[in-house]
C-alpha cells in the first residue's frame, strides 16, 4: 500500500519551449470539483534569476496497480500572451505561492493522485505550536524514486511562532534540511481527525532556505531554516 500523502505531490519541470530549465515540487489541491496544481511562484517566473519558462510538465501516475507507469502532462503557462497561473500579495508584499488550474479532461482516465482540500487547512493558529513536528514532501535536487515516480519526505519542525507572521511576511519558519527542487512542496502536520483517507493538516508551501547576509561563509554554517508560506492563501488563489 502506498501512503496517500506521497500521491499528493508531483514533480514539476519547467521549459522554455523544448528547452528544459529547472525542476521543482508541487502538489494537488481540489476545491468545489476544480483541480489545481500548487507550487512556488518563483517556479513559474523569477525576474531576479531571469527564469521565464513558458510551460511546465507534471509527472502523473496512470496505473494504481503499477506505479512504474506514468506520463508527463504538459501545461502552458501563457495563453494569448497572458499568464494563466494565479499569484497573490498582501500587506507584506508578494507571496511566493502560485496555483494553476488543471483541465480534468486533459488527464488520463486512469490518473492516480490525491488532493488536499480546504478541509485540510489549519483554521486556528493557536492549535499549532513552535517545535511541532512536520513533514515536507518533495523532490530535492530532483531526487526521488525514479522507478515508481514517488517523492521523498524530510522531517521538519516549526521554528518560529506559527501565530506570528515572521518579519511581517506571510510565512513561518521551519527547521529542516532542504535543497533546490523542494520549492513548492507541501508542509504538513499529522492530524488523524482531519480526514481518514488523508490524515494531515496542510500548513504551508515550502519556498526557500533562509540565510543571513552577513554570515561568514568560511566559519559559519547555514542556519538550516526555511520559509513556508501559510497555506490558507490557497482559499484566495482558488476562489
Strands, helices and their partners?
Elements: E1 9-16, E2 19-31, E3 34-39, H1 41-44, E4 55-61, E5 70-76, E6 78-79, E7 82-83, E8 86-90, E9 93-102, E10 133-138, E11 152-158, E12 171-175, E13 186-190, E14 200-210, E15 225-230, H2 234-237
Antiparallel strand pairs: 1-2, 1-4, 2-3, 3-9, 4-5, 6-7, 8-9, 10-11, 10-13, 11-12, 12-15, 13-14, 14-15
Key words describing this protein structure:
239 residues, mainly beta, Thrombin, subunit H, seven-stranded antiparallel β-sheet, six-stranded antiparallel barrel, 15 strands, 3% helix
Would you mind describing this structure in some detail?
- It is a single chain.
- This protein is mainly β.
- The chain has one domain (4-237): Thrombin, subunit H (Beta Barrel), CATH 2.40.10.
- Helices cover 3% and strands 42% of the residues.
- It has 2 helices and 15 strands.
- The chain has helices spanning 41-44, 234-237, and strands at 9-16, 19-31, 34-39, 55-61, 70-76, 78-79, 82-83, 86-90, 93-102, 133-138, 152-158, 171-175, 186-190, 200-210, 225-230.
- It has a 7-stranded antiparallel beta sheet with strand order 5-4-1-2-3-9-8. It has a 6-stranded antiparallel β-barrel with strand order 10-11-12-15-14-13. A two-stranded antiparallel ribbon has the order 6-7.
- It is globular, with a radius of gyration of 17 Å.
